[in-house]
TrEMBL record:
Subunit structure: Monomer. Forms a complex with RARG and the SRA1 RNA in the nucleus.
GO-annotated molecular function: RNA binding; tRNA pseudouridine(38-40) synthase activity
Protein name: Pseudouridylate synthase 1 homolog
Keyword Nucleus (UniProt): yes
Keywords: Isomerase, mRNA processing, Nucleus, tRNA processing
GO biological process terms held by the UniProt record: mRNA processing; mRNA pseudouridine synthesis; tRNA pseudouridine synthesis
Name of the encoding gene: Acey_s0061.g3256
Coiled-coil positions: none
EC number from the UniProt entry: 5.4.99.12
Matching PANTHER family: PSEUDOURIDYLATE SYNTHASE, PSEUDOURIDYLATE SYNTHASE 1 HOMOLOG
The species this protein was found in: Ancylostoma ceylanicum
Role played: Pseudouridylate synthase that catalyzes pseudouridylation of tRNAs and mRNAs. Acts on positions 27/28 in the anticodon stem and also positions 34 and 36 in the anticodon of an intron containing tRNA. Also catalyzes pseudouridylation of mRNAs: mediates pseudouridylation of mRNAs with the consensus sequence 5'-UGUAG-3'. Acts as a regulator of pre-mRNA splicing by mediating pseudouridylation of pre-mRNAs at locations associated with alternatively spliced regions. Pseudouridylation of pre-mRNAs near splice sites directly regulates mRNA splicing and mRNA 3'-end processing.
């Protein structure tokens, strides 16, 4: 072989020889220029503490087409450049997770989120302020701090604490008025705490959620504590009166959908004597029971607990259960102004608990129509049964005399001296006629009289004024029993079909205003 042939053969084999020896050099077009070299951004795992008022949102987790807490939060992080457009559309790309998926309208004061972000030392102060300037007023980021690379806010959480705030008149007895003037007794608080303690421990809560069966192991939940706090007063500026509220606090490893609201609803039903105490234990058994679900307004995620995580990483990372006195002071301030105050005001304005109580007296605990249960009326008439017993005793001592009543236009006054009943009607326009059929008494009462109308029933200290008639009508229907001489116990009626401010002539359970 000539020298020229040897040179040509060596050149032709050079690329192959380079591949075999691993020494192939990239072409100039394939290599990156110095100005185009990519800079690797250091990232770290962070825990975020936030609070929010949930009434304007469809829960915590993102739902396309609906406003959610995560949707607002991730959108704000994208505007700040913390995450890319792709990460915004697919949050799992920056490992975004939350500790608890709160439902629609449910609020939280110490929700924890975990995420991977570009490493910075000023997230806790500057980063928090940047986020809050872009977030709605009802979502507040409280603080941020570094977490371990494997931190998962849901899986590392060992317990959750929720509170439920409600007016104390929800626990009124059948012999007590259900209105703003109600003040709970210590004996009732002790009874509530006893009922709440029944839920402590591990139980099958399949009756406290939906679309679950008794043999579903996921229905077993462990409750660590369930307690009733001390009552407190909140002033209603519209009605210029103080209303008493109370808070129930429950701590458990985890909860299933609707569980807390149904536990609260069941306790209210028992305290109001619409159900037996023993029925609570029955709800843990295999028979299907329709447990009443309390309104969602008062429910609040108070805290998520990371006790095991905090002990394990105490030397390298800050705790995530207790964020320290400075952060806790901020949490307390945000909690009242953003969440608690709104819960109290909303309850006073919309009276969701009062409306729910109106339906509770008709609630059917027997969900299976073929089950051998007592009829629905048995549960509805437990309170009325006491009234009938008292009415029978009162009827032996009272006798109503029939009296003639002049027309309303001339002014009318009826007195039944023996039973102490009085009905004063001032002069006014047109009248409607009220007839008490059992005793034959007929009284002309104006449908819309601006003058005072007063009815006193001796024996149960019931007084109804014209300016307070709607309050007392609802109060009576929601649990107060009354004895009308010669007439017997009251009958439950449908006030909830009327709006506040409308005439209650067709809905008064004391029959003071009736067609």
């Amino acid at each position: 072989m000539t020298k020229l042939a040897e040179v040509v053969e060596q050149k032709s084999d050079a690329p192959l020889h380079g591949v075999q020896s691993g020494r192939v050099e990239k072409r100039h077009s394939e290599s990156q220029s110095d100005g185009q070299a990519k800079v690797r951004i250091k990232k770290a795992k962070y825990a975020m503490l936030l609070a929010y008022q949930g009434k304007n949102y469809f829960g915590m987790q993102i739902q396309k087409g609906h406003p959610t807490i995560e949707g607002e939060l991730i959108s704000a992080m994208h505007k700040l450049g913390w995450i890319t457009e792709q990460m915004k559309e697919q949050p799992s790309l920056f490992h975004f997770q939350r500790a608890a998926r709160t439902d629609r309208a449910v609020s939280a004061v110490r929700q924890i989120c975990g995420m991977e972000l570009p490493q910075r030392d000023d997230y806790a102060i500057i980063g928090v302020n940047e986020l809050n300037t872009l977030l709605p007023e009802d979502i507040r980021v409280i603080s941020m701090r570094r977490a371990t690379n494997l931190f998962h806010p849901q899986k590392k959480c060992c317990a959750r604490t929720y509170s439920y705030t409600l007016p104390t008149f929800a626990f009124a007895k059948p012999t007590e008025l259900t209105n703003a003037a109600f003040r709970i007794k210590k004996e009732t608080i002790d009874e509530i705490n006893h009922l709440l303690s029944i839920y402590k421990g591990t139980h099958n809560f399949f009756n406290y959620t939906s679309k679950r069966e008794f043999d579903d192991r996921s229905c077993f939940r462990y409750i660590l504590s369930f307690e009733c706090g001390e009552p407190f007063l909140f002033h209603d500026d519209v009605r210029n009166e103080d209303v008493e509220f109370i808070q129930l606090t429950v701590k458990g490893q985890s909860f299933i959908l609707h569980q807390i609201r149904k536990m609260v609803g069941m306790v209210i039903a028992v305290v109001r004597e619409l159900q037996y105490k023993s029925y609570i234990q029955r709800t843990f058994e295999s028979d299907r029971v329709d447990v009443p679900k309390a309104p969602g307004l008062g429910l609040l995620l108070e805290r998520v607990h990371y006790d095991v995580y905090d002990r394990k990483h105490a030397k390298t990372h800050e705790p995530l259960t207790d964020w320290g006195p400075e952060v806790e002071a901020r949490v307390k301030e945000v909690k009242f102004e953003l969440i608690t105050k709104e819960i109290l005001i909303s309850e006073l304005r919309h009276q969701s608990m009062l409306q729910w109580l109106a339906d509770l007296v008709r609630h059917d605990f027997c969900a299976d129509p073929e089950a051998e249960e007592l009829p629905k009326q048995t549960f509805l008439t437990m309170a009325v049964a006491k009234a009938e017993e008292a009415a029978k005793a009162a009827a032996e001592k009272m006798e109503v005399k029939e009296e003639n009543v002049p027309s309303c236009e001339d002014g009318a006054k009826q007195e039944a001296l023996e039973d102490g009943t009085t009905a004063n009607v001032s002069s006014c326009g047109d009248t409607i006629k009220k007839e008490i059929q059992e005793d034959g008494t007929t009284v002309d009462i104006p449908p819309a009289c601006t003058d005072a109308i007063k009815k006193e029933i001796q024996g149960d200290n019931v007084t109804v004024q014209s300016g307070q008639i709607t309050e007392h009508c609802r109060a009576c229907m929601l649990g107060m029993w009354s004895v009308i001489p010669g007439k017997g116990a009251i009958k439950l009626c449908e006030w909830s079909t009327h709006s506040i401010g409308q005439s209650y002539q067709l809905a008064c359970p004391l029959r003071l205003f009736q067609k």
